[in-house]
Amino acid sequence: MAGLLPVLLLGFLVPAALLAGDNTLVATRAVRASSVLGPDDVTLLPGSTPGALSSPEEAIGQETRAALYPGRPIYAGQVGPPALVERNATVMLHFRQGALFISTEGRALDRAGEGETVRVMNLTSRQIVQGRVAPDGSVEVGR
Questions:
Q1: Would you say residue 62 lies in a domain?
Q2: Disulfide check for 23: which of 17, 44, 119, 128 has CB 3.0–4.6 Å away?
């Protein structure tokens, strides 16, 4: 309860929670899914919300996975790395094991950002495989 009491600081009443670092990151405006967040899209409000982000650095530059609404907390599952692979896009599949390196084309079945797992249909064999998106937008399988 002490975190809710205001504190007199330099003649201004400031919520103690803001001073203590218990903040919740919220959207400043409605943001559509698949949008990259900028500094004007988020702000901090005093108080802690379980599971919500607490720092602008955690969200700025990330892509929204769901629509965000003004004044509502932003949760970690609602943002992620910007998509490098779009659904139905043709991507390069790379398999490497020791000295063996195989490369072929595939069709992405999902959207995904760098480091995320994506399902891809191998266009040669028609098999569906899972792989991790590399920084260049290709998909590494078999690791």
A1: yes
A2: 44
Cα–Cα distance for residue pair 52/11, rounded to 1 Å: 31
Same domain, 99 and 67: no
Backbone angles phi, psi at 16, to 5 degrees: -60, -30
Residues 130 and 118 sit within 8 Å (Cβ to Cβ): yes
Rounded Cα distance, 13 and 32, in Å: 35
- Prediction pTM value: 0.66
Nearest Cα to Cα of residue 121 among 97, 99, 96, 89: 89
CATH number at residue 126: 2.30.30.760
**Strand-strand pairing, 90-97 and 139-141:** parallel
Q: Which domain holds residue 100?
A: 83-141
Q: Round to whole Å and give the CA distance between 123 and 128.
A: 9
pLDDT in tens, 44-79: 999 999 999 999 999 999 999 999 999 999 999 999
Yes or no: say if 113 and 87 are a contact pair by the CB < 8 Å rule.
Answer: no
Torsion angle defined by CA atoms of residues 134, 139, 111 and 35, in that order, rounded to the nearest 10 degrees: 20
What does the alpha-carbon distance between residue 131 and residue 66 come to, in Å, rounded to a whole number?
Answer: 23
